[in-house]
Write a structure and sequence with these properties.
311 residues, mainly alpha, two-stranded antiparallel sheet, 2 strands, globular
Length: 311
């Protein structure tokens, strides 16, 4: 496992060195009312709001407890995450940067800041943070990451390492760097210990392999998923894998109960399904619909935006 991650980091650095430097969005130059610039050139704004009271009470209690127990890194993480849940991603990045200046060898801080760099479309900065996190936790035991907004069973499913590899893969995927994305997803599968996380990695890895033209390998991944799998939160990814496998139809997974996040996730995935089956215009139509819906912090939205920006 250690050798595989080391190889990933070496290959990743070599591949990045061959890529032309891409300009990051100048979100720091934007007025306070704006957050960042989309890949299509639109200014992305958010109404900074309070988060639901039941979540605020939970997060504040976790933050306060960490402070009382002198776990300052945990306290700083919860305060920054609370700011992100309210929609102020630029301020969130600043809070994580302040924490990193105080605790420069704490991998969790880089992992969390990298996540919000993705939200702000600063993919190169995100990749740097995730690679830094991976170097710092190399050889260490994994750490469960508690959810700020718990799932229905209140069972945390992700860890520092799975979140780092997942988001690193996503940042590369959004940039069209599919070889690096595939390496990250493979590392993520190696450290996943529950069905939900495996399904998440299989979903993105399948699409990555299709992007690379490695269709047989992608198809083999679908042998690992079935309709009977029991999941807690990654049901949209599972349903999309069932569409890719030909078990479900698109009409079976679109319901009125889907949340905005579900709709962005399902929209990108169904657009991708049309894309790989040669229905390019239909794919673009769906991705455009996701973009116009405006849930711009969702990964399905950002992926749809990236597809439209490639034209």
């Amino acid at each position: 496992m250690k050798c595989r991650i080391l190889v990933f980091l070496i290959l990743s650095h070599l591949l990045i060195a061959c890529q032309p430097e891409k300009k990051q969005p100048d979100f720091e130059e934007l007025p306070i009312s704006a957050q960042t610039i989309s890949m299509l050139g639109d200014t992305l704004k958010t109404d900074i709001q309070g988060i639901p009271e039941r979540y605020l009470i939970r997060i504040d209690s976790l933050s306060k407890l960490a402070y009382q127990e002198d776990r300052m890194v945990d306290h700083m993480i919860w305060e920054a995450r609370k700011t992100a849940y309210a929609g102020d991603y630029r301020q969130t990045v600043e809070l994580f940067t302040d924490a990193i200046n105080e605790f420069p060898n704490e991998p969790r801080l880089y992992r969390h800041r990298g996540h919000r760099y993705i939200t702000l479309r600063a993919f190169d900065l995100a990749i740097n943070d995730f690679q830094r996190a991976a170097k710092l936790f190399e050889g260490q035991s994994d750490i469960t990451e508690e959810d700020g907004l718990p799932n229905v069973q209140n069972i945390p499913l992700s860890t520092l390492q799975t979140n780092t590899w997942y988001h690193l893969g996503l940042a590369h995927y959004l940039k069209g760097e599919y070889g690096q994305a595939n390496l990250a997803y493979e590392n993520g599968l190696q450290v996943s210990d529950n069905t939900d996380m495996r399904v998440a990695f299989l979903y993105w890895k399948y699409m990555t392999l299709r992007k690379l033209g490695r269709d047989a390998e992608a198809g083999a991944l679908l042998d690992q998923v079935s309709p009977e799998m029991e999941l807690i939160e990654n049901t949209s990814y599972h349903e999309l894998l069932m569409v890719f496998k030909g078990v479900f139809t698109p009409d079976e997974i679109i319901t009125e109960e889907n949340s905005e996040l579900d709709n962005a996730t399902l929209g990108y995935g169904l657009g991708f399904w049309h894309h790989i089956n040669g229905r390019e215009e239909r794919a673009k139509e769906i991705w455009q619909g996701v973009y116009e819906a405006g849930n711009w912090a969702a990964f399905g939205y950002i992926a749809s935006e990236a597809e439209l920006a490639r034209d």
